[in-house]
Amino acid sequence: MLPLSSSHCQSAFSFLQRLLFTVGIYRNVRIVFFLSLFFFLVFTFTYRFVGNEPSWRRAGAFGAADRYAITTLLGENTSPNGEDGYFLATRVLTYQLLHAHETRISERNRHRIDWVVMVTAKVSQESRQQLEKDGAIVVQADDVEVPTWATTSEPRWKDVYTKLRVFQWTQYARVLFIDADAMITRPIDGIFEDPDAKQSKPPIRDRQVPDEMPYPAKYLLLARPDNANRLAFNHAVPPDPNTPSDHLNSGFFMIEPSLEMFNHLLHVISIEGRYDSFMPEQNLFNYVFRRDGPMPWVELDWRWHSNFPNVQDRNAGVASLHEKLWQGGAPELRALWDSIRKRMEDYDQGKASYK
Questions:
Q1: What residues does each domain of the chain span?
Q2: Residues forming a β-bridge with 221
Q3: Angle between helices 85-98 and 125-134 in degrees, nearest 10
Q4: pTM, two decimal places
C-alpha cells in the first residue's frame, strides 16, 4: 500500500458528509465526533505503519515487479589468525553501497533496492548488530543441506551453498549477488536496467536431461566469465573476443528468484557425481547453466565485474573488482580499498561526513 494523499482524505470526508446528510444526523454532535475520530485513526494508522516506514526496513513489502535486492553472504570466520577479513569487507561494501557518494545506490533507485546481508547461524550477534547499525538488512539464512559427496575440503567454502537461498526470495523481481570480498568503483544499481536482466527464458526442451526433470518454466542467470581461466591477473582489458570463456564466476551474478529453480538445483545436487564439488556452488552453476545445456547462462557486459582484477580494470571503469584487497592484489587497488576502509571508519565515528 502507498501513503494516503490529501485527495484521498478529502474524498473520504466528502463521502462522510453525504452519508450524514442522507440520514439526517448533522445535529447529532456525538455521532459526528466518533465517526470523524474513526476515520482519523484509520488514516493515521495506515500512513504510519505502511506509507511512512523506511523502505530498507520493509524488505519485500512491495510487489515483485517493483522490488530488487543486492545481497552478499557472510559466514563463519575460518581465518587461522582470528582476524575476520570478510566481516570487515562486508562493512566496507555496505558503506560503499549506502553511504559513499561516488558508489552508493542512486537516489532514484533507493526506494526499490534493498541491500541485504545474509548471515549464517555462526555469525555473532555483535557482528549482526554492527551491520544493522551500518544500514544493512541482516537476514539469517538457513544452511542448505547437501549430501556428503557434494561438500568441499576447502574450509572457506563450506557455507557457499547458502547462496542458493536467494532463489527463494520471490518478493524480489531480481537479485544481484556480490561476494563480500569485492570493491565497487561506481554505482551498480544500473545493472537492473540492463536489457538482458529483463528477459527470462524457458529452458531449451531438446537439451533437457531426463533424470534432472522437472525443469523450471523459466529462468534467468547473468554472470561474468571467471578470469582464472583467462590469465588471472594478466587478463586483457577489454577482454579479447577471440578468447571466450564458458566458465562463469559465482562471485557476481543476477537471478530471477524462483522456487522451481531452487528445487531443481537441490535435485541436481542430490545426483552423486553430477559435477565437481570442490568449488561447490560455482561448479554447480557451471553445470546447471552450462552454455550447451538446457539453461545457458547469459554474459554480462565486461564493465560490470572482474575477478583477479588489475589496474587496467579500474582505469577502464569496471564497476566491481573481486579480490581480497585487505590482504592481496595489486598495490594500487589495495591502497584504494584501504582508503575507503578509513573513510568508512571516519563516517562511522562521526569524524567526517560523506553525503
A1: 11-52, 64-349
A2: 255
A3: 20
A4: 0.80
